[in-house]
Amino acid sequence: MSKLYLCVFALLATLSGSGYCEDAPAPEKRYGSGGGRPSEAQIAEWRAKRDAATGENTQVAAPAVVHDMSMHDMSSHDMSAMMPKPQGKPKEATAKKGRPIGMGMRSGVALWLSDTPPMRGDSARGGRSGMGGMAGMDMGGGGWGKPAVKRLWLRAGNDPQRSGFAQEDTDAQVETLLVTPDGKPEGEPLPSANDDRKGLSFEMPVQGFYRLYLTSRKLQGDTLNVNVAKAEVANFGHGGDEEEAAKGLLATRYSESAQMEIVRERKPDERKFFQLKSGEEQAFLVLRKGLPLQGARVRMISHQGWSKEEVSDEMGRVSFQIVRDYFPPWNDFEKRFKATYLLIAEANVAETGKYQDKPYSNVRYQASLSGNYYPSPTDYLSYAWALGVGMAILLFCGVAVYLYRRRRVKPYQEERFHEGK
Amino acid sequence: MKASSSRLQALRDAVNHVHFNRFRFWFQLAAFVLFVYGGYLAIDLGSRLPFFTCGYNQEGRAGVCYLLPLQHQLSLPWARLFSYAGIAVLTGLLVFALWFIVLNKGWCGFVCPLGTVQDWLTSLRRRLGIRYSTYSQGQFAQLTKIKYLLLALMILIPLGIGGGLFSHSMSPPFCLICPARMILPMFTGDFSQFTIDFSSKAALVMTALGISITALFLVGSFVKKRFFCFFCPMSALHYLISKPALLKLKKDGSKCTRCGDCYNVCDMEIKEIADDIKNTNIMTDDCTMCLKCVASCPETGALKATFAGIPIFESTEAGFIKRMGKGIHHGK
After folding, report:
1. Model ipTM?
2. Which of A40, A102, A245, B162 is deepest in the core (most CB within 10 A)?
């Protein structure tokens, strides 16, 4: 009988577009359509099911979608040939030891830049917060007279928590480009790290946004895979040069030389220390060489692994609501918990050419961007309790003062003196 | 030469005979509008201001009370605080002192928006015909120490947070219990601070304490003039660095008849203002430099406010008589 109730409830929930039936969870965790709070056990169960279905971090081929590429980037391409290509099974990833750079295309395994190394797991706490992207200094830099230093790690995988380090692939050609707020708009090459586990470090001498692009190219059959992992790091401080900070806030945040990139859309009220909060709506732009890219599939993955996919519109714009997926026991709740989201955009282009003297007839672009979000400031806040406590004290003190004063008032007593007697 | 000196004397007479309460009301109102709504006009006077222009008033503030950044700075990890970040703390303190030095505690009596709100509540109480309360001398002597205790806690708790002894949920400790955090944003339609935060035990305790103190503030301000100023750690901090301030409150004991008018009008119930005839610098730690004592003094030259040694407002018999005609709310 209870099963029947559950299924009726599930049906109602489905019809009203909300929630899951516990007995019939979605094949993959998705958000945006459900509102309930999943338990830790549910999360673990769904995670296990998803991993079983997808084979750890590798994924089945994504559904075929026709991608309309905007005209600007098609100058040398055959527009009529822009059809979705069959997606081959990806090579088995090297799982725990990391994935080779350049292996991500269509496999569902993305390369992305993170300001948190993999071993930190769930308690991601690195650097200062800000701008909904990455921020701050986490190498102890920024001392008196020294510029702040930022360190980023290249990771491979689709799960912000479980993605391992990306390992070097000798077949892939990799280049890094750092765009500083006061530097060349097309950026300067960043020297690669000696050891991939040491990450990519750079100094941030001025206020503004630093953008790091790591582009890898690799030929697989007749397909050229181009993967652009991007990180946007906000470097702002209290005090400092206000003019420099204002300039940094308004500076261009995309690169015309980037093969493909995701840009977080600025909110009108954004200031230096803006933080993206759970529950907020956030828009992103998918650009190719600085111009909007229509029809790119963009997937957002939350800190706990919830994901949602959208297709960019004619302005290259996609919008996601930042899911609330941080539900620790009350004693463990951290108001400043820094969660990581991961955004992966993909597009196919029928394009012929040669790469390292080998011909290709198809290019698969993938761009990634990660950033941080925090618990909503209204989580655990209660107006009702505040009003109750405030009113109780107000009434108690008001009545106490009134009674105290009333007790001290002596009744009027007339005394008559008869001087004549 | 003679003409200019007579013009100067005329100006002094005009100032000394001013309708003081009206002047102060409009000055406070202008300051309140500036510091509570100035942000809408893109006015920003920085974050080192020596009075409660609350940083939690996100949109409207024209500056930030120094206690907020001070507590944030002191809660930095010790390794940073006691190295390069210490310089930022010192420069912040220096800027605060430069602001303070101009008006001394006159910031409290004329500019502080929370003080102005208390004066408005006092005015409302008076109109409703509710009498005010006073402390006994014993209570006064004990309660006046609270502001120093709060100042000490306001410094020690952030240091403890930086050292990992206390939770970050307690930061900034004084702001979390300060009634200005709830009351001033309310004037711009922001009621978001009227909440209790259940996210952690420390946050729960601090925000519940904040709400409780705000309720006490409202009741207290209704029965006691400048109720909160008596416990204000900013007032304690002011007094500690008040020596080099330019604005001073001076008394000439030889001209004082100890009539007690100054004590009767004093919002802070400072008895020394009437009793002390030896000290010339009469400002005490509780004084808000509202200058109501000067305005109510009938003895010419007995009390005066000086700026860099130059008298700017002086008690005069003629001014007293003129103000009496208008009423200075004697003792109410």
Report:
1. 0.87
2. A102
